[in-house]
Amino acid sequence: MNKKAFYNMSYGVYVTTSTDNGKPVGCITNSNTQITSSPATVSVSVNHDNYTAECIEKSGLFGFTVLAVDSDPEIIGKFGFFSSKDTDKFSGFEYDVKEGVPVVADGCAYAVCRVIDKMETSTHTVFLGEVIDADTLKNSEPMTYSYYHKVLKGKSPEKAPTYVEDAADETGAKKFVCDVCGYIFEGDSVPADFKCPICGVDASHFKEQ
């Protein structure tokens, strides 16, 4: 099976959120899908190992922000490559609380949902949610999974539904990989003042591939 076939499917990039007894939690997802428009119903797939999945299960609520192409890329680094169990992912980012659920403000739109059903797979829980609130945030183009990879040159966290291990690069170019988010810098060396455009860490986190 050639998993690259899945690259041709359409995905967005979302910050899916919930609450842990009032503490905001969240993670990056890319398999959020509208199921019906009336009643408005959506689904989201979250890895069993993500703390956010546990919190959605307990609270019965989840929200998500549709990230835009001009959203701060550090949102993806923070929400995609750290755990809400031991990291305040919302620190430094504006967010609002809607229907008791934190919603990141830097995106195109948001929705808040009440869990009405779920389906278990070997690695992920697919939560089905009835939308109880939704609105647009700013007039900007939604970020796609393809844009994230081709333009921002980001990698999926291993817990993401669409994670596929990259094939070996045969171009021979010198590459340095961020050990936090997987961003690849190409060049003779990483400048001392360089910061990862995805997760914001400094040059010390880049290792030659």
Question: Nutshell version of this structure?
Answer:
This protein has 209 residues and is mostly beta strands. It has helices spanning 51-59, 74-81, 145-150; strands spanning 14-20, 23-29, 33-37, 40-47, 61-66, 95-98, 101-104, 109-120, 124-136, 175-178, 184-186, 206-208. It has three helices and twelve strands, in the order E-E-E-E-H-E-H-E-E-E-E-H-E-E-E.
Describe the overall structure.
A 7-stranded antiparallel sheet has the order 2-1-5-8-9-4-3. By secondary structure, the protein is mostly beta strands. The chain contains 3 helices and 12 strands. The relative contact order is 0.19. Helices cover about 10% and strands about 35% of the residues. The protein starts with 13 loop residues before the first strand and ends with a strand.
